[in-house]
Task: structure prediction
Amino acid sequence: MRLNRYIASAGLCSRRKADALTENGNVKVNGFVMREQGYDVKEGDVVEVDGRVIRPADKRVCIVLNKPKGCITSVGDAQNRPTVMDLVGDIPERIFPVGRLDCDTAGLLILTNDGALSQMLTHPKHKIRKTYRAKVGGLLSDARIARLRKGVDIGGFVTSPAELRVLRQTERATTVEIRIIEGKNRQVRRMFAAVGCKVIELERVAVGDILLGRLKEGYYRKLTRRELAYLDEISRK
Ligand code: URA
Result:
């Protein structure tokens, strides 16, 4: 495994940062400073960063959790509120959530012990599509839909064009599927607020080609081999 990936997959930093650390002489392999960024780490090599031996997670773990509303996306909480980690407590590897969903948003959350994968999924350059199902108050007019599709100002940031599809519409509420490529804080809620609509319910149903499907709320599943291959393919781009 290439040195930068080895360091990143230990959850220490990004691959780019790992390259910088290597160049600056902070990395040792088998006791010797290693400045060769392209070094291929072999079985039995001991890699140190800043004097600390690091080991990438023995095994890459990557799961999809159907996060319920009311738990927070964090590895711990000073106020002792329920976190997503309470739902995956039986996994021995040190996994962590990739990006975040608000406490009151449900749906698809990826957790992994692979720092490089997490960086890739959240890096804007990959433009990973995130698909949400949102129930908003009242009727959503065509004009508002057009504005959301074009991009709206959510306070110092204009969103990229979004894909939007109305699934259900009554006088009281409209359910839509909205697909965005950025991951700004509370972005979907802020987008609807920008066109004068309040989100009543929000659920993430897909990240790229990874679908929530019929996974029950509060449960998780491992990514399939095909889904992992899809993520590796994007990483190479
Ligand atoms: N947009 C939101 O408003 N909330 C989320 O949790 C995710 C996207």
User: Anything to note?
Assistant: The mean pLDDT is 92. The two ends are 18 Å apart (CA to CA). Residues 101-102, 105, 186-189, 202 surround uracil (CB under 6 Å).
